[in-house]
Amino acid sequence: xxxxxxxxxxxxxxxxxxxxxxxxxxxxxxxxxxxxxxxxxxxxxxxxxxxxxxxxxxxxxxxxxxxxxxxxxxxxxxxxxxxxxxxxxxxxxxxxxxxxxxxxxxxxxxxxxxxxxxxxxxxxxxxxxxxxxxxxxxxxxxxxxxxxxxxxxxxxxxxxxxxxxxxxxxxxxxxxxxxxxxxxxxxxxxxxxxxxxxxxxxxxxxxxxxxxxxxxxxxxxxxxxxxxxxxxxxxxxxxxxxxxxxxxxxxxxxxxxxxxxxxxxxxxxxxxxxxxxxxxxxxxxxxxxxxxxxxxxxxxxxxxxxxxxxxxxxxxxxxxxxxxxxxxx
Amino acid sequence: xxxxxxxxxxxxxxxxxxxxxxxxxxxxxxxxxxxxxxxxxxxxxxxxxxxxxxxxxxxxxxxxxxxxxxxxxxxxxxxxxxxxxxxxxxxxxxxxxxxxxxxxxxxxxxxxxxxxxxxxxxxxxxxxxxxxxxxxxxxxxxxxxxxxxxxxxxxxxxxxxxxxxxxxxxxxxxxxxxxxxxxxxxxxxxxx
Lengths: 329, 192
Known about the structure:
The structure holds two protein chains of two kinds.
Chain A: H1 2-25, H2 32-40, H3 53-62, H4 76-86, E1 96-100, H5 121-124, H6 143-147, E2 153-155, E3 161-163, H7 173-177, E4 183-187, E5 192-194, H8 202-208, H9 218-222, E6 228-231, E7 234-237, H10 247-251, E8 257-259, E9 267-269, H11 278-282, E10 288-289, E11 297-298, H12 308-312, E12 318-320
Antiparallel strand pairs in A: 1-4, 2-3, 5-8, 6-7, 9-12, 10-11
Chain B: H1 2-14, H2 25-30, H3 35-64, H4 73-95, H5 97-103, H6 114-125, H7 130-160, H8 170-185
Helix pairs in contact in B: 1-7, 3-4, 3-6, 3-7, 4-5, 4-6, 6-7, 7-8
């Protein structure tokens, strides 16, 4: 017993002493900024930057191979700190969060089978793809939830992942993990979404899901800024063009497009109105009325708060009556 | 002298650690993509094996047997190997940062490379004397390097070859390793 302790300890001490001597003798000078950077970075080791962990990213930053903005989980403060260490200027970056392109929960989607395999989407997709009839549906076994390093995803009672945009850092892990490409990254401010990824023709979609996109094209025509295109039997919204007016969501017959900004507060027209009538013409809901060269009024019962008129008013006389400020400039 | 030469031949070709005993397959697959890194890895393993064998033989002879501590063999040997690997790592980092980068995680993984521990334990089991044990370790290391180099050479050429898509990369590497192992089976039985 004593001999075991003594021999093992002494071997350990000798090895440790030898190593400490060697590390002094063969000491390699590293860039002192490396350590500082490793301290500043989030330390999640999520790999969203494409480098092996935060220390790999720090090394790439110092080598000038990576940009500070490639770090998905970092907030603006962290990035400015990193830039400070590197002596760089950082540009603006768009904060991205994950978005689920499926609205067919267990309460809505048509079921065709009972799946009793491993509770994992990647396993389910190999054996017929879970219980829902739609081949583009979210299977809801929560693979995205289990890969999320930030606990930003929960599975709702309807069996669909719900992404907490506050927690989501846009690290892309769930997007990669989802075997059906249900999840995509979208700008944080973008709140009007096509909750469907089905490329099936309309007739097939109607059979398997009451909230699937049938590619009817109504949203494409309704969009006042031409941000929606229907391609491969699926509508998609260009987040760069979208002004978040929500008209597509209001007109979608399948309720595939959701509008997370609802309810929007109605607008009102100030005294600066010069009666140009542009707003009344622009309004898709005929909520604005008034004679030319007189102050116009908004019918609050009809106004949906889409704020299309706000943008078009040459006198800047239309204001939102409170609530969330929109991205409309 | 004759026994020593036989030990070398035996460990390099007939009882090759990777291709006949199937020890140390992880770095064999992991570092065999380029000949340069394969040589670096091979040299590191040869060094670790030879020094580890010298140290572990003495530990076995002068500590474990006299004090009846045979049950501490594994932990003692791993401690020695781990320290040596650390030493090699510190040295390579200083001497050749490029090789350090290329070896990456496989360098610290020599610690848990079963070929190294296997060599140490086998040479005890075979009851070698000190010189034979070191020769055995040297041969094992050279055998590992030979296997790694052969594999790296083949894989470098495979990169250029027209391999059917499903077999590219790891799949082709495993098939190659299997065939290489089969080829080495031709040596079996030549030396005990």
